[in-house]
Design a protein that fits this description.
CATH topology: Arc Repressor Mutant, subunit A
Number of helices: 5
Strand order of the largest sheet: 1-3-2
Number of domains: 1
Radius of gyration: 20 Å
Strand content: 5-15%
Largest sheet: 3 strands, antiparallel
Shape: elongated
Helix content: 40-55%
Length: 105
């Protein structure tokens, strides 16, 4: 799956957005992240895995724990891409379809 698609898929879930919000405060272990939610550790692990696949979090091993940290570069790149998609063209009507139907009036 394309990186941008993974990012937007990851952001589509409220639990994953809440995890990212918690990681804004600083690095947390998987257990510390799970303690803040009323769902099982297996579900949190699934959410963390999707966030990791999307590149929104990084993980490092510290002893027996896995420590997660926020990684904003991928999100910044996805937002820049999104802005270019929705940016109005510099010269409307040149080299592309016009806003009309294309039929003579």
């Amino acid at each position: 799956m394309e990186t941008h698609a993974l990012v937007f898929k990851a952001l589509d879930d409220g639990t994953r957005r809440a995890i990212l919000e918690r990681l804004r405060q600083g690095d947390l272990s998987a257990g510390e992240i799970a303690d803040g939610f009323a769902i099982g550790k297996a579900s949190i692990s699934h959410h963390l895995n999707l966030l990791k696949q999307a590149g929104l979090v990084r993980v490092r091993r510290q002893g027996q724990q896995q420590i997660y940290s926020l990684h904003t570069t991928v999100l910044q790149e996805a937002l820049q891409w999104l802005m270019t998609v929705f940016r109005e063209p510099a010269t409307p009507g040149k080299g592309g379809r016009s806003s009309g139907s294309g039929r003579p009036g």
